[in-house]
Design a protein that fits this description.
The structure is a single chain. The protein is built from 2 helices and 9 strands; from the N terminus they run βαββββαββββ. It is mainly β and 125 residues long. Strands 4-5-2-3-9-8 form a 6-stranded mixed beta sheet. A 3-stranded mixed beta sheet has the order 1-6-7. Strand 8 and strand 9 form a beta hairpin. It is globular. The N terminus is likely disordered.
């Protein structure tokens, strides 16, 4: 019996900060563009909520400041923040920005997700 292994469709950046959560170059670039358009720096808040078609769903929000207990993930002078409750669901993930035929959006490349929906917004563990 042979086993077939296929390469992942993406490469997760090296982990940092003990939580392994990283912000990709594409996400940092998009945050810089959004901050320039707004006239001030913006942070990307990433959270995990219950719901969606797979059990959990990602929530993305642009904010001006972090909360005191947020975990900050930075790259190229830009940052995303994650609350302590969402962090275990995101451990080892990469936050990226993709612009393809399906649309332009922030995504989470989550190695903990056992399955996800077609749109990539909800997942199960």
């Amino acid at each position: 019996m042979s086993t077939v292994h296929s390469a992942p469709a993406y490469q997760i950046s090296p982990s940092a900060g003990g939580h392994g959560l990283t912000l990709s170059d594409s996400a940092a670039k998009r945050l810089a563009e959004l901050g320039a358009a707004e006239g001030h720096p913006v942070l990307l808040r990433v959270a995990v909520d219950g719901g969606g078609c797979s059990g959990f769903q990602y929530r993305f929000e642009l904010v001006g400041a972090a909360e005191p207990d947020d975990i900050r993930i930075a790259a190229d002078g830009q940052a995303a923040v994650v609350d302590a409750v969402s962090l275990p669901f995101l451990k080892g993930s990469e936050i990226a920005f993709v612009d393809d035929l399906a649309g332009a959006q922030f995504v989470v490349r989550n190695p903990n997700a056992a399955s996800s929906c077609g749109c990539g917004v909800s997942f199960s563990i």
